[in-house]
């Protein structure tokens, strides 16, 4: 298989800056949450700096110590060059820039979306990728290390080994009709094992809302930063999540009116059994994943798009499409092709629903990327 020494050059015209921020707050369940976030943003020059480090070595070491993800041992490399630069000046080309959030998969790291976040920032968005306590791994700016908690690891393992889930998974059809997929999705979402898994998704959604509050303070000047009066917040923010991050994305859309729309990349509908997201939502996935999220469009009062991507593996939707060193975890699509289509659908969707641009995702055409269904229950 082809391997890469560096991530691809960003698609847009801006140089991309990256800065890291730490956060501490008390969640609604009274737990103390210590978060970090990488913020990617448009800049005008690299200022002669070296590119940002991709992933801290301490975090990479954690991956090899976690029983939850031993399957990923020696799957990817962190010795890859990024295309962003730490702590640059914010571009002066525009007065303000729209805001997006990225949510990585459970057991992952906030750096795992670097390619997509860099692409979106190069095209004029400020993009925030959070490290969520218990469910992801990260090193904070203050040096503290956060590993996956035993509780989260146990819940994920229990879900993967649940007899009811295994039985349903064995019955999932490729390209099911709507009725079959909706019934299967209902059966999955009513499994008792999902209750605890959903609690972690809801905590992640609370993290996103807390960091969104923080951005409002940065924008107002209450807290000093390069983003003072430079964030375009009144038009609404967008949010995209991969895998386990997808349900978090949907919960944020459902519960926070500051978010205008959302995207789930090969994700499910945990915690969303009877939820009206009230926001446009796009789901891009590899079959038989339609079985895992068919209820989202059934309940959503706004547009819901379902796009099936053939010849793609689950981890192709994140940076592993380039950092992979083990072909068994890669799909059959060329890495650049996969990156291009994910970035194109993501940006076009956000441009349409946040910036009110005319072009829609329905105008895009990639081989083997098919619109399974578009719903609107207005």
Automatic annotation (TrEMBL):
**One GO BP:** lipid catabolic process
Keyword Lipid metabolism recorded: yes
Q: What superkingdom does the record give?
A: Bacteria
Q: Keywords in UniProt for this one? A: Hydrolase, Lipid degradation, Lipid metabolism
One GO MF term on file is: 1-alkyl-2-acetylglycerophosphocholine esterase activity
- Please name one Pfam family that this protein belongs to: PAF-AH_p_II
Protein name, UniProt field:
Choline esterase
Tell me which species this is from: Lacrimispora algidixylanolytica
């Amino acid at each position: 298989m082809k391997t890469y020494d560096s991530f691809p050059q960003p698609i847009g015209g801006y140089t991309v800056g990256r800065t890291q921020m730490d956060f501490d707050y008390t969640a609604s369940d009274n737990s103390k949450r210590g978060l970090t976030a990488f913020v990617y943003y448009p800049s005008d020059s690299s200022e002669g700096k070296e590119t940002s480090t991709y992933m801290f070595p301490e975090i990479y070491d954690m991956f090899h110590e976690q029983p939850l993800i031993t399957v990923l041992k020696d799957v990817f490399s962190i010795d890859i060059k990024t295309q962003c630069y730490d702590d640059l000046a914010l571009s002066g080309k525009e007065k303000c820039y729209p805001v997006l959030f990225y949510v990585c998969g459970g057991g992952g790291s906030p750096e795992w979306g670097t390619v997509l976040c860099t692409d979106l920032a190069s095209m004029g968005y400020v993009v925030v990728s959070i490290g969520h306590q218990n469910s992801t791994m990260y090193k904070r700016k203050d040096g503290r290390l956060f590993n996956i908690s035993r509780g989260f690891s146990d819940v994920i393992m229990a879900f993967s080994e649940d007899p009811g889930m295994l039985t349903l998974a064995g019955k999932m059809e490729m390209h099911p009709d709507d009725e079959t997929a909706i019934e299967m999705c209902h059966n999955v979402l009513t499994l008792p094992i999902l209750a605890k898994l959903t609690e972690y998704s809801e905590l992640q959604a609370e993290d996103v809302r807390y960091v969104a509050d923080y951005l409002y303070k940065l924008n107002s000047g209450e807290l000093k930063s390069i983003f003072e009066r430079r964030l375009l917040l009144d038009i609404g923010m967008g949010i995209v999540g991969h895998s386990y991050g997808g349900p978090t994305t949907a919960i944020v859309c459902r519960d926070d009116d500051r978010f205008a729309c959302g995207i789930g990349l090969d994700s499910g509908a945990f915690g969303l059994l009877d939820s009206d997201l009230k926001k446009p939502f796009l789901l891009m996935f590899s079959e038989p994943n339609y079985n895992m999220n068919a209820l989202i469009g059934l309940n959503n009062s706004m547009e819901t798009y379902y796009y099936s991507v053939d010849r793609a593996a689950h981890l192709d939707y994140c940076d592993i499409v380039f950092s992979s060193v083990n072909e068994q975890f890669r799909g059959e699509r060329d890495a650049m092709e996969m990156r291009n289509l994910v970035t194109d659908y993501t940006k076009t969707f956000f441009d349409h629903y946040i910036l009110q641009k005319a072009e829609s995702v329905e105008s895009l055409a990639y081989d083997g990327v098919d619109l399974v269904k578009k719903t609107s229950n207005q």
